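Annex B. Sample input.
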Amino acid sequence: MKSKSLQKTIVLLLFLTISSASFNLSAQINYQPRPSGGIFDVGAVDKTGMIIVDGLSTAGSTVYQTAVIKGNSGRAAEWSNHFGVDLFNECYSVIQTSDGGYVMVGRSNSSAGLGNFDAWMIKTDQDGNEQWNRYFGDEYIDEAYKVKETSDGGFIITGMTTKFGWAGEGWLIKTDAQGNIVWEYGYHPSSGSLEVAWDYIYDVTETSDGGFVFAGDAPTVTENIQAWIGKVDADGTLLWDHTYGLEYWERIFSLEPTSDGGFIGVGDRHWTYNDTTYQHDGWLLKFNESGDTLWTNHFGQPGHDIFRSVKQTSEGGYIVVGESEAGITNGFWGWIVKTDENGNELWNNHLSKGGLFAVLCNESTYSAGGIIVNPATAGDGWLLEINPDGTVAWESNIVGTQTDDIFLSLYPTEDGGLVGAGKYDQHDGMADYWIVKLDADGPEALTYFYENFDFVTPPALPEKWTGAKDVMLANTAAEIRTMEMGSTTSLPNAVFLMNGINGSNGQIDSTAFVALVTPYVSVGELGATITLRANGGLPLQVGLMSDPHNSETFQLIAELPVDYNYQQFSVYFSTPGEYYIALKHSNQSAVSPIFLDDILFEQSTVGTSDPESLNCKLFPNPSSNETIITSFEKMSKVIIHNSNGKVMDIIQPNTKKITINTANYPAGFYVVSVIRESGKISNAKLVIN
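Annex B, continued. Sample output.
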């Protein structure tokens, strides 16, 4: 068992309500560390991170996730893989199969294929390792757009092919469970099509009688493309089909069965916004079981707007995603629309610059995937969780490489997670299939943990803990690790936090961010407390992070006056919620390590009501020009930090009332720390408009 003497206890009682105008003062508590001698189960997994998959996948790919978490949860990648012999390979569809593995289809012009472009099918095991692959087509152009597992254990694949003599025909391929062709046919609208043009089948769904209903588009007259829906029997014989449109250009990209036995389709149609200009609108079409339209509706603004994927919601309406050019001069917005059962808009959101190509309905939210514009990488894989009211619960950039990655398909997995697939590392006319397995939605937020760091082998951190390090200078050295403490009072292990050292001159790198981040935690209705022991030559900053690997999400809460004797500190959080707690090196004025140990997080069992809390106030708050701080006893020092922990001002008033000029402070929130003559410390947030 550890021998860890406690030389001094400082307790910070802290409320996180931004609008509060009063300080909540310190109160003495008795704390005894829980006994060591076993590994405490903290039961959560870090759900976000710049590097999700440790090391390399079986294909040598490292996955990076720069998560912009807007809510309390996110999905983490369990593994990633990419496939491509050479040249250009692009995956359009992925599913999980009944054996727990995955099947992908798309197109490839690899030298290993049959011709120019081939339809390419890959089967993997449950960990994304290839089991077999198949090429389909001829020596010209063949592409596969959607794959679904059939009731007999095989697969149905949609696409376009030049294999049967026309310029391009809509294509259905029926295979067995091993990807061997059972039958394949090219199709055209029965009403006629242009032999020199191209017909496409983009999506398909199996019907209860063993047949298949498909959707796509076909050029029935010159310069005119019509939406196309049809049905074949179990052997691929065409039973019926219909075309819709004649406005100029109409397409169906996604088709789903509906609860009434019919189908819902989405795509785009041309629409006139003035007398001369045709532009795309997102198009929603409701069909009965025979492919006749019951109603259609179009959505958009001047500019090109395209729907890519649709699902029926639990209420009977529809959730649709795509791309919209509304109000943008270069590129598209990711676009999501929700309607009622009759196609009437309930809400319509334009999100970040990029595009959404896949949508899923979860138990209470919607998942969407696509590409988001990133100036550093051109484009990243984009994953979002959308609340029922259309607000973004969270979103993440999933980065496979530094040169353009995209999700074109999402599929729910049997463990409650997702699998996403698309295009990986597009550059110089080359790209690979990309598949990423994402875990179930959201980390489990802990209500209690205790960590003494004695059951890991230095320099490793315990599972579920994160070392958050962000340095701008290439030669800066900064460390977060466990270490053996030798003969100090923190035997045998503690966490070592070394702030940023500029390797070129040995001086402090003030741009460095160095923090130990706890597992994801939940603060209950009565609040919670984190208690720790620390020593070192510089202050320790306590803050919150929504993403433990994105330093920009750090929000300072309190600064602890650490010295060279081990002291115990406690910070109380009163606002219920879920987040990560960051223990950050203040990185001020000098190069000096901080040591951390015996970190306890636990819920409060009684509410906190410090009788002195009303005797120290700041007003007005929010403030524009000045704020007045009053205290029941003299204030020896007042320190003001911005939200990133930078010291903005230090005042030594030796009075009970001071006025702070805030007119020159940038708008935002600040942490004001008051040290009183008694040595007690109070902290509060100050909002400056």
